[in-house]
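Appendix C: a fully annotated inverse folding record. The material below is reproduced so that readers can follow the format used throughout the book. The structure is listed first as tokens, followed by the designed sequence.
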């Protein structure tokens, strides 16, 4: 019994290190999330350019993820993770020295490459360290580190960008990434034995077992592209105060789900978490489309945080549930590729929608995207029932 408890222990030294490294890199990232649109405006850009600057980051990250997945299998976890963190640190630190949107656009491509490498590796490393029987719970705790960063980052970023120059602000974000790099260098990375393969396919760009949950995640993260890129501008246009508090409430609600969402997935599976979580997100999008005052803004933040916090760790655990150990890197790459694609497409399309139809229409379109994910999930269930 005692041996089993040790075997199923989640909080090892290496797991603690990856959790804290993840916190600091996410903090540096989350601080830039609501401030990049402001920086683009400061450089003379409009809503359409904001969408492209935000979107190109996620597309760059997306393109790197399959290569990151292969590298995790062939080169090892540590080299991919440390390289990604280093690229992220250097690119973010350079932002404040850029004087044009074209240069910012180029460096966002570089930042996306670093983010794609580091987050694909980080999720895979966490998966290696978590006992299989407690994977949903462990991924929930791992995700909590990013959620705490979400609770602090956007509000802190908006506060600092109001009081500091953009140059100093981005240097601070870069230093946070440097702390993550330092912590990650102390991790003893687990070596995963590769399964013998005759020939590696040239276009091996995804893990088949991860496609379903990844597709569902895509339609959900489309909503995040609209919130991260345009909600600060939307609330300013409507003269609604409290955007900093929105991000705080959202992240606190997200954190509250970690006490039960992962364990619920481990016991009941995705059937217990997906529809309830997406319903909450759908209502949140409807409230943002309406948005008469700060109270509704805070209610939307709470519902969105609860819904996203219930759905995301479960879908990530589902994506690696039936994946062999030597393919976990590709499974995580597949999941986060769809994750990034949703944010990138959301930011770019919503930039056009906001420019032509107004900010409110962004959240109506986002609600439709969530509804599509629910229909797709029901379709998957019907197919599975028909096969039984």
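Designed amino acids, in order:
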């Amino acid at each position: 019994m005692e041996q089993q408890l040790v075997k199923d222990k989640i909080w090892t030294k290496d797991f603690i290190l990856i959790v804290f490294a993840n916190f600091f890199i996410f903090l540096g990232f989350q601080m830039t999330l609501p401030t990049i649109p402001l920086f683009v405006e400061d450089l003379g850009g409009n809503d359409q350019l904001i969408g492209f600057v935000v979107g190109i980051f996620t597309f760059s990250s997306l393109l790197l993820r399959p290569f990151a997945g292969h590298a995790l299998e062939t080169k090892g976890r540590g080299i991919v993770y440390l390289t990604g963190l280093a690229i992220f640190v250097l690119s973010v630190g350079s932002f404040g020295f850029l004087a044009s949107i074209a240069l910012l656009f180029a460096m966002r491509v570089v930042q996306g490459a670093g983010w794609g490498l580091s987050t694909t590796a980080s999720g895979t490393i966490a998966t290696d360290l978590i006992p299989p029987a407690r994977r949903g719970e462990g991924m929930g705790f791992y995700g909590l580190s990013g959620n705490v960063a979400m609770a602090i980052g956007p509000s802190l970023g908006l506060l600092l960008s109001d009081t500091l120059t953009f140059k100093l602000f981005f240097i601070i974000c870069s230093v946070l990434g440097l702390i993550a790099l330092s912590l990650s260098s102390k991790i003893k990375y687990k070596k995963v034995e590769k399964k013998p393969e005759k020939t590696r396919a040239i276009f091996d760009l995804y893990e088949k077992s991860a496609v379903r949950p990844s597709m569902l995640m895509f339609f959900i993260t489309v909503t995040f592209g609209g919130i991260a890129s345009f909600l600060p501008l939307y609330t300013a246009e409507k003269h609604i105060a409290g955007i900093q508090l929105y991000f705080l409430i959202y992240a606190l609600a997200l954190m509250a789900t970690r006490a039960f969402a992962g364990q619920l997935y481990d016991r009941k599976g995705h059937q217990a978490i997906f529809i309830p979580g997406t319903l909450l997100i759908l209502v949140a999008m409807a409230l943002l489309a309406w948005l008469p005052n700060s109270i509704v803004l805070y209610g939307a933040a709470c519902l969105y945080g609860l819904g996203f916090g219930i759905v995301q760790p479960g879908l990530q655990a589902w994506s690696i549930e039936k994946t062999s150990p030597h393919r976990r890197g590709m499974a995580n790459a597949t999941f986060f590729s769809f994750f990034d694609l949703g944010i990138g497409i959301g930011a770019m399309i919503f930039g056009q929608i906001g420019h032509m139809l107004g900010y409110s229409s962004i959240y109506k379109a986002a609600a439709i995207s969530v509804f599509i994910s629910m229909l797709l999930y029901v379709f998957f269930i019907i197919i599975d029932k028909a096969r039984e």
